[in-house]
């Protein structure tokens, strides 16, 4: 850990010491590994173990190759994210929010664990969508992932939309798709307004999510980066933390709890 000491509600990063600082948390795959969900770019990440796996979440391959879709559905069917539970890091964020500290979570994850831990849905911005629903690429009908997976279990390797017969995909942002401009716009406003900005468990290599870190620093936020490996934004951080997230994040957030 490097930096200038613990954060606190009376941190000089807040322009008004009488109010509690706005804490923005950008979370990536690393925050959910303790819940049994593998990350993507870490030392044991999915992309490092099987570079071909990236095709399964690339829109062009998915839409044009039925075999890619079948493999994708098997991946979803077996995904630990559908059964995962929040871990100590998710719970620490939820505790901070319940303490009355203004908290906003901007997540690159699609597992829904922040909400399951107790952070209100309206305070969580899912930049890359959610893996708990599927959407039709033709009529845009949205249905629970569990229903589609049940059809795969019943023997349909590539279930089509029941409304129009279109191709179904998870309600996540695949490579080659644009982020929801409304969600991204709100995330940018949160980054600009944040007094404390914590990037946790993210390699900060995927844009435009990573650019939120620079935006927060540019607008005066105290930046903390918590990740197992160095990131391109470490030089902007007041503090970088390499210790395990499951213990480091609760300790850090405890210094912000009134």
UniProtKB/TrEMBL annotation:
Q: What is its EC number?
A: 2.3.1.286
The top of its lineage is: Bacteria, Bacillati, Actinomycetota, Actinomycetes, Kitasatosporales
**Which residues of this UniProt protein bind Zn(2+)?**
136, 139, 161, 164
User: What protein name does the entry list?
Assistant: protein acetyllysine N-acetyltransferase
Name the catalytic site residues.
128
Q: Which organism is it from?
A: Streptomyces chrestomyceticus
Question: What PANTHER family does the record tag this protein with?
Answer: NAD-DEPENDENT PROTEIN DEACYLASE, NAD-DEPENDENT PROTEIN DEACYLASE SIRTUIN-5, MITOCHONDRIAL-RELATED
| Swiss-Prot/TrEMBL keywords | Metal-binding, NAD, Transferase, Zinc
Q: Would the keyword Metal-binding be found if you checked this record's keyword annotation?
A: yes
Q: Where is the composition biased (Low complexity)?
A: 1-15
List the residue ranges of the region (Disordered): 1-21
Record domain Deacetylase sirtuin-type: where: 2-258
Entry superkingdom: Bacteria
- Class in the EC hierarchy, top level: transferase
Q: Which CDD domains match?
A: SIR2-fam
